[in-house]
Amino acid sequence: MQKSNNQKENFLKYLSLAPVLAVLSVSIAFSTWAVFNYFIPDLLFHPMP
């Protein structure tokens, strides 16, 4: 029973680590940028006539 509680504590410590949070924030930012550019493309690659 104690081992299960220890695993939960270690998992919560892992989720609060800076590299994990950095990867999540960068992936969310890139995904937002990609979706934004999909719907509103840059005029450099899609020039207006």
TrEMBL record:
UniProt similarity note: Belongs to the PsaJ family.
Alphabetical UniProt keywords: Membrane, Photosynthesis, Photosystem I, Thylakoid, Transmembrane, Transmembrane helix
Domain of life, per lineage: Bacteria
Entry's transmembrane regions: 12-40
Transmembrane helix keyword on record: yes
Reported function: May help in the organization of the PsaE and PsaF subunits.
Organism, as annotated: Nostoc flagelliforme FACHB-838
UniProt-recorded name of the protein: Photosystem I reaction center subunit IX
Location of the protein in the cell: Cellular thylakoid membrane
Any Pfam family matching the protein: PSI_PsaJ
InterPro entries per the UniProt record, alphabetical: PSI_PsaJ (IPR002615), PSI_PsaJ_sf (IPR036062)
Keyword Transmembrane helix applies: yes
Membrane topology: Single-pass membrane protein
